[in-house]
Amino acid sequence: MSRTELETELKRITEAVNSKLEEIARVPDVPEKSVYEAMRYSLLAGGKRLRPVLTAAAAVMTGGDFDDAVTAGCALECVHTYSLIHDDLPCMDDDDLRRGKPTCHKVFPENIALLAGDGLLTKAFEIISAPDSFKTLSAETVNKLALCLSRAAGCGGMIGGQVIDLESENMENISAERLTLMHRKKTGAMIEAAALMGALIGGITDENSGEYKAISDYAMNLGLAFQIKDDILDVVGDENVLGKPVGSDEQQGKNTFVTLLGISGAEERLKKCTADAIGAIEIFGEKGAFLRELARKLVSRDN
Q1: Residue 95: which residues within 8 A CB-CB, separation 6 or more?
Q2: Angle formed by the axes of helices 50-61 and 3-24, to 10°?
Q3: 106 vs 63: CA distance, rounded Å
Q4: Rounded to an integer, what is the distance from CA 301 to the centroid of its chain?
Q5: Contact (Cβ atoms closer than 8 angstroms) between residue 298 and residue 226
Q6: CB under 8 Å to 15, separation ≥6 — which residues?
Q7: Are the C-beta atoms of residues 287 and 269 closer than 8 Å to each other?
Q8: Domain spans, the chain
């Protein structure tokens, strides 16, 4: 797949995702509309839409329905956005900017921002469980989607990773194993879930099958590569391109792959994770071309 073909397909998926998110983010005329406005603000604030793109691409690769995959991916994006709102709060990272815009708690009262995150989390499972959400999926598959997402978002996944992150701040001599575990949970679990939800929609439901494991390995390595790239950009990135200040990790005393390995060491680890991700889905042949090229694109991103 050429870079032009990659960008064309990426645009197609992203536009479908953004259209669905626009529908999800409608603000009803109700007394509590302020929380809906805060949810909409953060959900439509931009971003790469990597996770729903992965869901749609993995579903297409395995023969699943594109529209159903977009719906599932948007549910996952609601969970991701909730995590960003909460991550930015004063009690967590206390960030003022996200994607070049004021964070939710800077635009809305802090308590409304907190509730907006809660609202997006519960909205995700409302989307998945609504009887008219999916056209082609059985009740069993829908249940597996909900289980996959809840596991990735919970204490064994994203939340657990955030706890390790908070408890590792200013920790001297953090081990590579602890740092890797933290990022596999905090960032990687949701990226892995995104791809696996696509696989489930495509009928790959046996967790012991070679195809399921291949997609899992791809996404696990992609998630780690994505985080390593973020760590590097926090040191050498352009604030105007990133949409947030650089050097925030160091200011907050966070341990990263750069603090552990240095820039050159982190770049080598990034290359290895990317290569491992690409190699994991070779079994899909040409059907996996988009996901392989997407991994290569993410290595060279500047935001």
Answers
A1: 87, 88, 103, 244, 248
A2: 110
A3: 43
A4: 15
A5: yes
A6: none
A7: no
A8: 3-299
What is the C-alpha to C-alpha distance for residues 67 and 16, in angstroms, rounded to an integer? Answer: 8
pTM of the model: 0.94
Which residue type, as a one-letter code, is found at position 56? A
pLDDT tens, position by position, 254-300: 889 999 999 999 999 999 999 999 999 999 999 999 999 999 999 88
Residue range 3-299 forms a domain whose CATH class is: mainly alpha
* 249 touches 228 (CB < 8 A): no
Confidence of residue 1 (pLDDT cuts 50, 70, 90): confident
How far apart CA 150 and CA 225 sit, in angstroms, is 23
Which stretches of 15-124 are assigned E, i.e. beta strand?
Answer: 97-98, 101-102
Adjacent-strand bridge partners of 98: 101
Q: Which residues touch 270 (CB under 8 Å, ≥6 apart)?
A: 225, 228, 229, 232, 299
